[in-house]
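Module 6 notes. Inverse folding takes a fixed backbone as the condition and produces residue identities as the prediction. Think of it as a translation problem where the source language is geometry and the target language is the twenty amino acids. Below is one complete input and output pair. Work through it position by position during the lab.
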């Protein structure tokens, strides 16, 4: 093998390795299987390095489209965040060793979110995701109006008081298959074409 060919192969392998080593947010597709109200679909992204969940969205049809564009991530304890808690709960993956929100082993995990962008079923102000031994082998969701008392610094935040649920059911998450990176594929294609052309010229 000639030195120039070897250089091309090293460049392509290096590019592919660098691309594979660079962490990108994981994308999960969601399916909302309703017990009450409309069924729908959605998705979210989770950055395992930053422990940041973003772009949680839903679409229940009839213009009921909404979600959250960003989740603040103040540390809860031991470097864990509210994002990593919700990502483990929704994605059913062991994203954080400080939590245990996997169906079948979790005693109880519950996360309520306020301030959605867009619309919700029944135009309510909160959605709750939960897992419990008593709720069966599912992640449960519920949209409802909720109120909270005033926050007092240094004290445990008051629990929300919920009205009747306007939509609820089971939410299932599936990891989306990532698109291959175009740049490494382009470099690989260039290397192959160059190699074939080189052999043709030499022959």
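Target side of the pair, the amino acids:
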């Amino acid at each position: 093998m000639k030195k120039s060919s070897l250089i091309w192969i090293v460049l392509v392998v290096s590019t592919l390795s660098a691309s594979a080593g660079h962490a990108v947010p994981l994308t999960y597709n969601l399916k909302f299987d309703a017990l009450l109200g409309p069924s729908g679909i959605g998705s979210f992204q989770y950055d395992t390095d930053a422990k940041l969940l973003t772009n949680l969205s839903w679409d229940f049809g009839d213009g009921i489209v909404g979600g959250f564009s960003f989740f603040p991530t103040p540390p809860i304890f031991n470097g864990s965040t509210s994002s990593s808690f919700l990502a483990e709960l929704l994605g059913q993956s062991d994203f954080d060793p400080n939590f245990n929100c996997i169906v079948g082993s979790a005693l109880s995990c519950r996360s309520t979110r306020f301030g959605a962008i867009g619309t919700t079923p029944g135009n309510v102000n909160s959605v709750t995701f939960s897992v419990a031994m008593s709720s069966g082998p599912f992640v449960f969701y519920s949209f409802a109006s909720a109120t909270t008392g005033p926050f007092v610094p240094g004290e445990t935040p008051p629990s929300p008081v919920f009205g009747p649920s306007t939509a609820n059911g089971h939410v299932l998450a599936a990891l989306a298959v990532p698109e291959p990176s175009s740049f490494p594929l382009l470099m690989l294609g260039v290397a192959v074409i160059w190699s074939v052309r080189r052999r043709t010229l030499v022959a």
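Reference fact for the lab report: The CA atoms of residues 122 and 166 lie 6 Å apart.
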